[in-house]
Design a protein that fits this description.
Largest sheet: 9 strands, antiparallel
Low-confidence stretches: 1-5
Distance between the termini: 52 Å
CATH topology of one domain: Rossmann fold
CATH architecture of one domain: 3-Layer(aba) Sandwich
Oligomer: single chain
Shape: globular
Strand content: 25-35%
Mean pLDDT: 95
Number of strands: 20
Radius of gyration: 21 Å
CATH class of one domain: Alpha Beta
Strand order of the largest sheet: 13-12-9-10-11-14-19-17-16
Length: about 400
């Protein structure tokens, strides 16, 4: 229950409904005895997914509109969001009401990939060669700038590897930038040097005074030029020097409150941040993390936003192995056959499959996680058993896409 045994009011800002919200944070808020109000620009979608939750329409990308909506409703005890797009607005609104919150400056630095690079470089934490292409700016101007090759072009404030592409020469770079601009006419782009090495994540949880490292994942990606996450394997503990380097860069950015999901590569012992998502990891990794660690992860995250300190020891399990796989569409078309949701026990492995796309749904090929057909997550006591259970399950399934 809420610490003072009185019902607390939490405002949760969201765009589209996500598993993190509907299966993670909303049930956790109920267990904490909180009254929840969802503020969103997609109210009907949230009412369909969570009919027992109060949902109010709001222009949530505008922090002034958020403040007005809250101040004309019930007095808040917490303002929270797990959306990449809404961390700055949420932090500003919470600060306005005098509530515990992330630094809005840190939220902006982590969301704006160009500003993140500038800030890390200015503080001497890390320097990645990069240039920024303003919204509407002619990509031909990049030929006059010091663009390294190979490089990666991506939206300055994008998410989920959408329109993130590796490029190896100037002509292709100009072409790719024009393609992204046609899809996102109002978006600024970042072009930065390609950082080699294996991709990993670090998951952290802090209350502003104490920071817990929850482990991370090793991420396997699709072949270039795209960066689709196809498999994540849980890593209970990254090497100490690597963790120290990543935490130093997060500290330079001002990150340390609530949940944070950081992607980084390691090359010759040097940890280089790819991006910082100042919220809990998504795509059901957070659901898996809570289950495998055996801790009330979503409750802990909400408690930090209520001003409650985290325990010195989360008492998280370390004797576990886990993996997530994301079967992906390889062409555009209509999904005409696919497995249904299932929960299985294979030896000591607990395996869960959830479809992402419905049979009969037609979609183009996005080259992002929007191509996911389903999500397989598995937890066990040793990696070999987990890997075998997932491989056997996938081998027995069929997804059919009709052009």
């Amino acid at each position: 229950m809420f610490e003072n045994n009185q019902a607390g009011q939490i405002y949760l800002l969201a765009l589209n409904p996500t598993d993190s919200v509907t299966e993670g944070f909303l049930p956790a808020a109920r267990r904490l005895g909180l009254t929840v109000t969802v503020l969103t620009d997609q109210p009907e979608a949230h009412r369909d997914r969570s009919p027992d939750v109060e949902v109010l329409e709001c222009d949530i990308r505008d922090f002034h509109a958020v403040i007005t909506r809250i101040s004309t409703h019930r007095t808040p005890n917490a303002v929270f969001s797990n959306s990449d797009h809404l961390q700055t607005q949420t932090a500003l609104a919470a600060e306005y009401f005098g509530l515990p919150a992330k630094s809005w400056r840190a939220a902006l630095r982590t969301k704006d990939k160009a500003e993140m690079r500038r800030h890390l470089a200015a503080g001497g934490a890390d320097t990645v060669r990069s240039v920024e292409l303003a919204a509407g700016q002619d990509p031909a101007t990049l030929s006059c700038l010091d663009v390294p090759f190979p490089c990666v072009v991506k939206p300055r404030e994008g998410v989920a590897s959408e329109d993130v592409i590796r490029v190896d020469d100037a002509a292709t770079l100009e072409q790719r930038c024009k393609e992204i601009q046609s899809r996102r006419p109002g978006a600024a782009l970042v072009v930065e040097e390609f950082l080699g090495g294996e991709l990993h994540t670090l998951e952290t949880l802090g209350d502003g005074r104490r920071l817990h490292v929850l482990g991370g994942f090793h991420t396997e990606l699709s072949p270039p030029p795209y960066f689709i996450e196809e498999r994540l394997t849980f890593v209970p503990e990254h090497p100490g020097p690597v963790v120290a380097q990543v935490l130093a860069q997060l500290d330079a950015l001002g990150v340390g409150f609530g949940a944070c999901h950081t992607e980084f590569v390691v090359e010759a012992g040097r940890a280089r941040i790819i991006e910082v998502n100042y919220r809990a990891i998504g795509d059901q990794c957070d659901l898996l993390l809570a289950e495998l660690l055996g801790v009330p992860l979503f409750e802990h995250i909400l408690r930090t936003h209520l001003g409650q300190p985290l325990p010195a020891d989360l008492e998280a399990r370390t004797d576990v192995a886990a993996r997530l796989d994301y079967p992906c569409a390889d062409r555009e078309g209509t999904l005409t056959a696919a497995p249904a949701a299932v929960d299985l026990t294979v030896g000591d492995v607990r395996l869960t499959y959830r479809p992402v796309r419905a049979i009969g749904e037609r979609q183009p090929l996005h080259h992002t996680n929007r191509d996911f057909l389903g999500i397989v997550r598995a937890i066990g006591t040793d990696q070999e058993s987990v890997d075998r259970a997932v491989a056997d399950f996938l081998a027995g399934q069929c997804w059919e896409i009709t052009p």
